[in-house]
Design a protein that fits this description.
Number of strands: 2
Number of helices: 8
Strand content: 5-15%
Number of domains: 1
Distance between the termini: 25 Å
Helix content: over 70%
Shape: globular
Mean pLDDT: 82
Strand order of the largest sheet: 1-2
Length: 238
């Protein structure tokens, strides 16, 4: 039998992963990554280009899907709302640190502000994408649960993440790297084909992660359910 303290710890661990990955994504998003692949794709060619946030942000969907499966739609939406407000906390802490006076032994304050200050514009783009994509993810996840009568966890994990990540990618890249590129620290406005490459490259990686993380969703959900965690629901075989 699982005690209340153990249940709270498991629930807290998923929440912590979600918020940690979310805040990390905001701070790392202004760096543009480039991954070489052994074959050429339309638009991207042989290099997948994406904002640095793609790696951390993909984990938020893993965490939210585990949370939604275990605890239900309303708790998952509360998780999304808490994450939304944590972005403002992060932004306030970052800018208060940038504006605070630096000691003589400090790293160069201008470099510090240039690196972390770039995340301000990224947060603007991310918040817009976040509100739409994360709520869409929870909505689709539970709609697919209803349609499959609680079976096929893999379908709702991949289906909800694939659609929500497409929405998130278009909104995030569109605002953060096209509409407001100067504040993102990338200088002159990027060409349209580069923007498209960012969208496609980021989405391909996120979709791949959604497929790869499915066994881990099964493992986490299965283990915690075996320990008596999560809401009790009638479930068909997956």
């Amino acid at each position: 039998m699982t005690d209340r303290g153990e249940l709270a710890t498991s629930q807290l661990a998923i929440v912590a992963l979600f918020v940690t990955a979310l805040v990390t994504a905001q701070l790392t998003a202004s760096k543009v990554l480039a991954f070489s692949i052994p074959y050429s794709l339309p638009v991207t060619g042989s290099t997948l280009v994406m904002p640095g946030a793609a790696l951390a942000y993909a984990l938020t969907f893993f965490a939210s899907d585990c949370y939604a499966e275990l605890y239900g739609r309303r708790p998952a939406q509360r998780l999304v709302n808490v994450g939304f407000f944590m972005n403002f906390v992060m932004l306030a802490l970052v800018w208060s640190t940038i504006e605070a006076p630096a000691a003589r032994s400090s790293v160069n304050p201008e470099w510090f502000g240039a690196v972390l200050g770039a995340s301000t514009n990224i947060v603007v783009a991310s918040l817009a994408a976040y509100l739409v994509s994360q709520n869409w993810d929870v909505l689709v996840f539970h709609k697919l649960r209803e349609l499959t009568h609680g079976s096929h966890l893999w379908a709702r994990n991949i289906g909800s993440t694939a659609t929500s990540q497409a929405i998130d990618t278009v909104i995030f890249v569109g605002i953060g790297f096209y509409l407001l590129p100067t504040y993102a620290g990338i200088g002159p406005e990027l060409k349209n084909e580069v923007i498209l490459s960012l969208v496609v490259g980021q989405y391909i990686l996120k979709l791949l992660i959604a497929v790869v993380d499915t066994p881990f969703v099964y493992a986490v959900v299965g283990y915690l359910r075996s320990q008596g965690h999560g809401a009790v629901r009638p479930r068909a075989a997956d």
